[in-house]
Write a structure and sequence with these properties.
Layout: E1 2-4, H1 7-17, E2 24-29, H2 35-47, E3 50-55, H3 75-84, E4 89-91, H4 95-98, H5 117-120, H6 124-139, E5 143-147, H7 151-163, E6 174-177, H8 197-203, H9 205-217, H10 224-237, E7 241-249, E8 263-271, E9 274-281
Helix pairs in contact: 6-7, 9-10
Length: about 280
């Protein structure tokens, strides 16, 4: 596996990779890889002739007081995992390579970025849209793979690609891959590593409370009671707070008062100093 740290080397390596005319898939990550990331790589290997992965901890999607400095960086370990999965090229730029001196451009996606994580983390999705657009322009992949755990992020990226008429990848080639979960149901996340042993046990209450709420929501009633029960179940289980617990349309992300036949439950909750997010289909 080749590793490119500069844009010049990336372009040279991509030109060599494309000599056979095969398709290229991109798997963007921030590193600290786990089985969820590797599942994205395997899906990409099935769909494309060549797989390029990126590792970049994007400073523009972290707000004031968030965990940018503490975010795990383990490039050597991650490189070995990617190579073992058949990735041919790793794009691992420095912040100065992505945002050179004088950088002044920002992409903001309205609508799908409103509320949920967009409400709790102002500017977060501007940072996501900007860096993903840059990654798409740098690699020019035929397709790109993202995990559905960050469902709102996926919606933002698809909206950006459609609105900006991006052709590589075309919006229809931005693939969402289902959430990979631990045995107790907790969604895999790099931030799970922040949890103590006790907090990790308590965190299993999150997917359980969500499943319990969905069982009631699927019956068609108003969402207030099951969502209130979800919040209380998390509080009793050891979570300090719930940033949001909402049902929204799966496509538009418009807030809903009850299941509309195409809805998802979205939750963000804090345990210790760690913020966990998850989402599940209601119907």
């Amino acid at each position: 596996m080749q590793t490119a740290r500069t844009l010049e080397l990336l372009r040279k390596s991509l030109a060599e990779l494309r000599q056979d005319g095969g398709s290229v898939a991109l798997v963007p990550t921030m590193g600290a890889l786990h089985e969820g990331h590797l599942t994205l790589v395997r899906e990409a290997r099935e769909a494309a002739d060549h797989v390029v992965a990126s590792i970049f901890v994007n400073p523009r999607q972290f707000g004031e007081g968030e965990d940018l400095d503490a975010y795990p960086r383990q490039l050597q370990r991650d490189s070995e995992l990617l190579e073992a999965e058949g990735v041919e090229l790793l794009w691992a730029p420095t912040p100065d390579e992505v945002y050179p001196e004088g950088y002044a451009t920002n992409i903001s996606v309205a609508g799908v970025s409103a509320g949920l994580c967009g409400g709790d983390r102002p500017g977060h999705f501007d940072g996501v849209a900007t860096v993903v657009c840059k990654l798409f322009n740098q690699v020019m992949p035929d397709m790109a793979f993202f995990g559905e755990k960050d469902w709102q992020q996926l919606a933002v990226i698809r909206r950006m690609a459609r609105d900006l008429d991006l052709m590589r990848p075309h919006v229809d080639a931005i693939r969402g891959v289902p959430i990979v979960r631990e045995e107790d149901g907790l969604a895999m996340s790099s931030r799970n590593a922040y949890l103590s042993a006790r907090q990790r046990e308590q965190a299993a209450a999150l997917p359980k409370a969500m499943r319990d709420a969905i069982a009631v929501l699927a019956e068609g009633g108003e969402a207030d009671r099951p969502l209130g029960n979800l919040r209380e179940a998390l509080r009793v289980s050891g979570f300090q707070s719930v940033d949001y617990a909402e049902i929204r349309d799966a496509d538009s992300l418009a807030p809903l008062a009850r299941d509309n036949g195409n809805s998802r439950l979205f939750v963000a909750a804090r345990i210790g100093g760690t913020r966990l997010i998850d989402n599940m289909a209601v119907s």
